[in-house]
């Protein structure tokens, strides 16, 4: 399976070249177009309970699409948000991905949900992650551009939960408040994730939560008298 990522980093699109018999599993709604003889199968991947967990807690669709080429074909995929797409080749390992950042993977990759902790009563914000495990290609997306940060032993890196894209299983992480309760409620920072150990964390230059916090107060509201 060859891949090409174009229009990055602002409006990235993933093009996959599939040979006969090759398949790829993608988030529902990610398909832009395809050429060639391709079968599309929509199913609750991993069974009812796992699909429900991904949908309710992971922010992903209940269903996933599997595209299987019957001959040489091309498939174009794109994420919902404007930003970049990045390829990760897993080799018997696990990658944790922020909800909504999963685009596609080899069908043999197991996609599960993990709660990272830190949900608050006031903000309703927590860290719900997708756990990608196995061997094969995976593709993740960001809102904005993607930065890569290497954490070495003895170091820590603090990342706002809204800016996390993915991180390696080798890292330890803890979700915590910024300062005290007052800072959490009024600083605009919310929750952060403290990474330690050894591994790589990928961040995005924009936060969907921050954008919604800016946008929603500006939306027109219906007059209660009408």
TrEMBL record:
It comes from the Archaea. Pfam families: AIM24. This is TIGR00266 family protein. SUPFAM superfamilies: TRAP-like (SSF51219). It comes from Haloplanus aerogenes. Gene3D superfamilies: Mitochondrial biogenesis AIM24 (3.60.160.10).
């Amino acid at each position: 399976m060859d891949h090409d990522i174009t229009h990055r980093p602002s409006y990235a699109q993933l093009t996959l070249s599939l040979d006969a018999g090759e398949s790829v599993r993608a988030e529902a709604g990610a398909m832009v177009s395809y050429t060639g003889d391709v079968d599309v199968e929509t199913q609750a991947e991993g069974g009812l309970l796992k699909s429900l967990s991904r949908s309710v807690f992971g922010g992903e669709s209940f269903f996933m699409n599997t595209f299987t080429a019957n001959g040489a074909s091309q498939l174009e995929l794109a994420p919902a948000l404007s930003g970049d797409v990045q390829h990760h080749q897993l080799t018997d390992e696990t990658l944790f991905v922020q909800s909504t950042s999963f685009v596609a993977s080899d069908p043999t990759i197991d996609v599960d949900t993990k709660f990272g902790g830190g949900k608050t009563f006031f903000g309703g914000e927590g860290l719900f992650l997708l756990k990608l495990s196995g061997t094969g290609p995976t593709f993740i997306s960001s809102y904005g551009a993607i930065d890569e940060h290497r954490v070495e032993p003895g170091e820590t890196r603090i990342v706002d939960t809204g800016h996390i894209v993915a991180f390696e299983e080798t890292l330890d992480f803890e979700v915590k408040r910024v300062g005290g309760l007052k800072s959490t409620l009024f600083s605009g920072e919310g929750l952060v994730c403290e990474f330690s150990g050894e591994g790589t964390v990928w961040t995005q230059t924009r936060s969907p939560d921050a954008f919604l916090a800016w946008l929603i107060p500006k939306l027109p509201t219906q007059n209660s008298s009408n």
